[in-house]
Write a sequence for this structure.
């Protein structure tokens, strides 16, 4: 009966949903392409063709009922299938025993891992799906011949789904991804059923707001929410130097973006003289490290992991990180240390609270490690975004040519948090301000760079640097080297 009464409306570019024998079936593009209707009708056709379970997923729970459920109810009513497909509290049930249910992915490990009986998993509007959610979901859908369907409108050019199925394959919708994936681009220009009203809206947008047109209607990632440092490329800007050879010529600085309860973030930067007034800058250490945080990036723990280190222990670890790299201990001379001046707005006060000048005074006390920090002017810190962008610049078309076409800012390969922040730090789509999630490592870099401008480059003094007022340095050094 279902074959006689049900004629699914599926865009010809998406017929592979019914007929191709591949694991991943992906469609991306802009508004008006008919992706959602085609995926919904294909899902209904599968449900009616044989007894199976289809699970429709979204990253967040709050949007499921108003999106997937509403869409499917509309399509069931449109095709007159109300008598054979009934709505339930958590999805739909067919007269042949097939089931379509819903699951959200975010922080829902137990329920997601229970989807092993799912034949088709449909990621509805899959743009927000995270790498963490995918790594739980993908191996869970494991029935023989099981499939994962994904449809989405790209938003973030670094979004996990977009990078995995489009960028990393070099597939921008015009070629089929080889192997177990079929991925197509589709927009309103491909859709013969697109309404005159939608076409009118698209053309108006094309004339008056071309950037919005490319994003909304053609399905290109949004330019709002763009990377703060798009010049940064780990293949180019991650470089290691020989620290022992640098210690007699480079100047070394340290800076931290402080915190009262959670961990501060600190970086160490070597300023390497290349010419009379030309320098390379090398971020050679960071705190805290991934090892210290149990393999978690700083953006994952920045508002969760309380820092239990005393100021003296913190100063001790900072001095270890002043020097230790590549399983050696270099006894470098740190020229100066910086801290965010906004954190110490009451700079002239004699307060003992950690929220004002008291932090600097307290840390400089010998009983707390004797570590002195300076506060670069706010205006100078703010200008460092442009300075950093300029230092990252090189002509990518020509390729890196030493001494001719190369950037001047590098990061050591073990500074995972700094590399992650440079790669993924973005402008928030909601506020159009910098997203706070990965801001702290970059803030520490900006604070340190601002301080460096106040110091002329000098030849380091000869001899071993004395580390006063610090106990347990040898113990911490051994622990660090054994990691």
């Amino acid at each position: 009966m279902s074959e006689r009464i049900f004629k699914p409306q599926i865009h010809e570019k998406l017929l592979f949903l019914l007929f191709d024998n591949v694991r991943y079936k992906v469609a991306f593009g802009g508004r008006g392409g008919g992706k959602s209707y085609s995926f919904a009708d294909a899902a209904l056709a599968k449900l009616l063709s044989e007894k199976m379970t289809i699970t429709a997923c979204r990253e967040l729970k709050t949007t499921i009922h108003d999106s997937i459920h509403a869409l499917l109810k509309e399509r069931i009513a449109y095709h007159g299938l109300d008598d054979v497909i009934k709505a339930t509290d958590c999805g739909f049930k067919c007269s042949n025993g097939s089931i379509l249910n819903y699951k959200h992915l975010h922080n829902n490990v137990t329920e997601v891992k229970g989807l092993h009986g799912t034949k088709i998993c449909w990621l509805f509007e899959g743009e927000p799906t995270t790498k963490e959610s995918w790594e739980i979901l993908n191996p869970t859908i494991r029935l023989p011949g099981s499939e994962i369907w994904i449809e989405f409108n790209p938003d973030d050019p670094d979004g996990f789904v977009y990078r995995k199925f489009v960028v990393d394959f070099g597939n921008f919708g015009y070629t089929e991804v080889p192997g177990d994936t079929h991925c197509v681009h589709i927009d309103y220009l491909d859709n013969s059923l697109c309404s005159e009203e939608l076409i009118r809206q698209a053309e108006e947008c094309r004339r008056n707001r071309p950037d919005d047109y490319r994003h909304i209607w053609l399905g290109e990632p949004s330019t709002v929410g763009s990377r703060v440092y798009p010049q940064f490329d780990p293949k180019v800007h991650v470089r290691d130097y020989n620290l022992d050879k640098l210690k007699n010529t480079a100047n070394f600085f340290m800076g931290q973006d402080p915190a009262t309860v959670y961990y501060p973030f600190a970086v160490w930067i070597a300023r390497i003289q290349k010419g009379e007034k030309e320098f390379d800058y090398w971020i050679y250490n960071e705190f805290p490290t991934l090892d210290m945080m149990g393999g978690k990036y700083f953006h994952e723990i920045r508002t969760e992991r309380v820092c239990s280190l005393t100021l003296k222990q913190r100063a001790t670890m900072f001095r270890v990180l002043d020097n230790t790299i590549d399983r050696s201990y270099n006894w470098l001379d740190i020229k100066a240390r910086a801290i965010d001046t906004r954190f110490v707005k009451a700079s002239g006060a004699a307060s003992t609270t950690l929220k004002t000048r008291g932090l600097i005074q307290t840390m400089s006390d010998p009983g707390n490690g004797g570590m002195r920090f300076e506060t670069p002017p706010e205006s100078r810190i703010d200008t460092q975004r442009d300075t950093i962008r300029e230092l990252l610049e090189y002509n990518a078309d020509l390729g890196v040519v030493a001494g001719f076409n190369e950037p001047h800012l590098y990061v050591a390969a073990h500074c995972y948090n700094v590399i992650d922040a440079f790669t993924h730090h973005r402008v928030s789509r909601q506020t159009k301000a910098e997203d706070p999630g990965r801001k702290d490592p970059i803030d520490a870099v900006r604070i340190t760079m601002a301080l460096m401008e106040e110091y002329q480059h000098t030849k380091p003094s000869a001899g071993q640097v004395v580390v006063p007022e610090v106990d347990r340095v040898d113990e911490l050094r051994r622990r660090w080297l054994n990691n």
